[in-house]
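Query form — protein Guanylate kinase

QUESTION: What is the three-dimensional structure of this chain?
INPUT:
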Amino acid sequence: MAVTLRGTTPEPPDVRPRLTVLSGPSGVGKSTVVAHMRKAHPDVWLSVSATTRKPRPGEQHGVHYFFVTDEEMDKLIANSELLEWAEFAGNRYGTPRAAVIERLERGEPVLLEIDLQGARQVRETMPDAQLVFLAPPSWEELVRRLTGRGTEPPEVIERRLEAAKVELAAEPEFDVTLVNTSVEDVARELLALMDVV
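ANSWER: The structure tokens for Guanylate kinase are given below.
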């Protein structure tokens, strides 16, 4: 099997699904795994983050992100309307709390794809959340994936690699680790962890 589980196996799910948080270093394939998983199981709800960054070509408000002003983000933070938030590359990103809680209360499986800082905040506010770390097969493979994208200048790649070292060191903070050697296998394992099979 191409997937390697490290750490403890999570407890059997409660009657209501737990919030599942997927995190890992940039370039490890989080978005690819989530897209593959949601193609097979569109019933898995992926939270849409709010961000202060400007939309990229093709991105739609409410689909890819909720694009908000700095003032709107300040208000969301001040009113505790975000489950977590973080700043990256001069922009802020956050997970709207109400939508997550609403879906969990309806019994829907909920997935957050967020960074390490956000995962730590979720652990504090929702200790029963299941934190899943997506790891690369090796450091060399992660470097290859980041440099192979060809979409970012060398200084941005260098920053991402430095951040990846910190993120990889935080792996023991997570409940489960999935090693991304196969998108299909990791997506299947993630669905099983969420009790969506």
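ADDITIONAL NOTE: The CA atoms of residues 30 and 134 lie 7 Å apart.
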